[in-house]
Write a structure and sequence with these properties.
This protein is an alpha/beta fold. It has a single domain, classed as UDP N-Acetylglucosamine Acyltransferase, domain 1. It is built from 3 helices and 21 strands. Keywords: Acyltransferase, Transferase.
């Protein structure tokens, strides 16, 4: 084993910094995908049935993970590109679904724990997203070590832009075309109508996306209003 590492180190010293960086990132992508629960992944869409992993990404859990074959995970020339995104559909009834053309920057955390987390099409996500359909634990003190017994679906509509370091909690619904500003903490059961601008901690609606249609009604907001 020592000889193997010595040979590897000698080879690495001969590489240019860009080539070495690319090699290390490629190794990490392969490693984290190899130890993932790959049998839970369903790739949908026309053409090839492969996943676009540009930075390390791990998939875990006992539920379903449904990915469009045009979704992208990772941005190599962005902070955290050697860090690992973590996507877990934890329980047998959990679901994570990601639509066509959706792109995640680095170090995303997505957790479904019995309800669902759904991203629409063409969603753009900044680095260090945190989104979950549960609190992971019950909140009352005697039961705090137990799993959340009331997970609620998270729905993020088509064409949403999510800035860096955004937290999205259970029951949240973000309508079509919205902007969620960097650092926002979108608290449980918050609803953003189509083309809203969302910002703050706790998040609130602070405006409307420039040039948005006058009247819109996405499936996410229709369902909530029913």
């Amino acid at each position: 084993m020592k000889t193997l590492f010595e040979r590897l180190a000698a080879r690495m010293q001969k590489l240019s910094p860009p080539d070495l960086e690319s090699m290390v990132r490629g190794f990490l992508i392969q490693y984290f995908f190899h130890i993932s629960d790959r049998q839970r992944i369903e790739v949908v869409g026309e053409g090839r049935k492969s996943i676009n992993l540009l930075t390390p990404t791990q998939f875990k859990g006992h539920g379903r993970i449904v990915l469009s074959n045009t979704a992208v995970f990772g941005v190599p020339r962005s902070p955290g590109h050697h860090g690992c995104s973590y996507i877990e559909s934890r329980t047998p009834t959990s679901l994570i679904q990601i639509g066509a053309g959706t792109v995640f920057n680095n170090r995303a955390f997505i957790l479904s724990e019995g309800a669902s987390v759904t991203f629409g099409e063409r969603v753009l996500v900044g680095p260090e997203l945190h989104v979950a359909d549960s609190n992971s634990h019950q909140l009352d003190v005697p039961n705090r070590a137990k799993p959340d017994d009331n997970p609620r679906p998270v729905v993020i509509g088509d064409d949403v832009f999510i800035g860096s370091r955004v937290t999205v909690l259970k029951g949240v619904r973000i309508g079509r075309g919205c902007i969620v500003s960097a650092g926002a903490v979108v608290t449980s059961n918050f609803v953003a109508p189509d083309y809203s601008v969302v910002a703050g901690n706790p998040a609130r609606i602070v405006g409307r996306v420039p040039g948005a249609p006058e009247e819109t009604s996405s499936p996410a907001t229709q369902e909530l209003a029913a």
